[in-house]
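Q: I'm writing up a methods section and want to include an example of the input and output format. Could you take the sequence below and give the corresponding predicted structure tokens, formatted cleanly so I can copy it straight into the document?
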Amino acid sequence: MDPLDELKELTRRYFLARSGAAVIGTVGLAMLLNDQALGVEDRKDPFAPKKPHFKPRAKSVIFLNMTGAPSQPDLFDFKPELQKLDGQRIPDSAVEGLRLGPFTNKDSMTMFASPWSFKQYGQSGMTISELMPNLTEIVDDVTFIRSMHTNEINHVPAQLLLSTGSPRVGRPTMGSWVTYGLGSVCEDLPGFIVLTSGKSGRCGTTCWGSGFLPSVYQGVPFRSSGEPVLYLNNPPGMDPELRRKTLEPIKEINHGSLADLGDPEIATRIEAYEMAYKMQTSVPDTMDISKEPKHIQEMYGTEPGKSSFSNNCLLARRLVERGVRFVQIDHGGWDHHGGGDQNLMSGLPQRCKEVDQGSAALIKDLKQRGMLDDTLVIWGGEFGRQPMAQVKPTKEDAGRDHLRTAFTIWVAGGGMKRGAVVGKTDEFGLTTVESPIHVHDLQATILHCLGIDHTRLTYRFQGRDFRLTDVEGVVAEELLA
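A: Here is the clean output for your methods example:
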């Protein structure tokens, strides 16, 4: 007997032996093999599309996660007062009661005007830094939220709060919550995919993990160069037919364990085997950006075969085009305290050069394909930067410390306003003074655009119903079209 057939026969015996006391004959066996009769239909296909709570504005999300905290006073939130008072000590009244960054010297808080020029662009008259020339071309399709604020002052807790709604590890990320709540319409790719470029973010895989949700909902890292998904290909000597014959008895064993134990992680294992098999065909084709027309590659500034933010933006469009629910692109290296590899004067222009063209091209491409209406794009980091200089030996080495009370994120498509500015900061850019939007409010609004009531998307864990927005968050109606 063929070893695989023998294993399959043993699996049947295992099923009959384990279930003999509870089911009898062929009727019992049919029930045993019927997932619906066992009440595990949802576990069999955890990504089956689910109905939203109400009519959605968006079908997919692309989260451009700029880890390290981009400097909003040098990019999006121009302050003429800083230009007038550059080099002077900031008034004590402006910082009174504020929790400032961990490296702030309160004896030498001098105002630091942006070294880069700002101009107004578009019909909306957006004020944008010269460091983002491509972004100036899409300002009328974007809404800038200049009044973002968070609870956390250090990178990892703030990155976790933005991604999971909590500063502590162990909670599901946005992509996990979205795929848990809505499932996916794509049958041969994961519902939540992660692409990385630049310097690694400090919170690592926890910023795309599934936390206490079944691990089937965690983000799956794809690579824009080399083998797209590690260990996806068959080993030498195993063709697709042999792989399929190998998977069948494994699947039967796993379904037997699932029926006995009801452990959702067994369902994850079943789904992982099946998805990996499907991805062997779908992933190489999806990740091959060389098939894109030349003018599209030039618009993004891609380099097929290399790892880059621009490549990832084009891949994100290809992924949501195929029905992927949530794509997260992490691009690190925005932590510019000054000096060395954190030098603001050299580091910030370099980061902007890496992401500006790809970010703008993504919005243009989605729009020209009619996809921007139902694809929500979010661009931003975990907190902001202070208007004061973080003092170094020379001004050329100066940087900016962390700021949790005011920063900028921009959003586009998916039911959001276009060509607008929401929120306002004080004359120095230290605090929000108009339409403050907390991280939890942004998360509630993202879910709202997807047709989800954030207070109803819950998961019971250790006796408590958890949600992405914890016990806070309101939909920011001023962001909605």
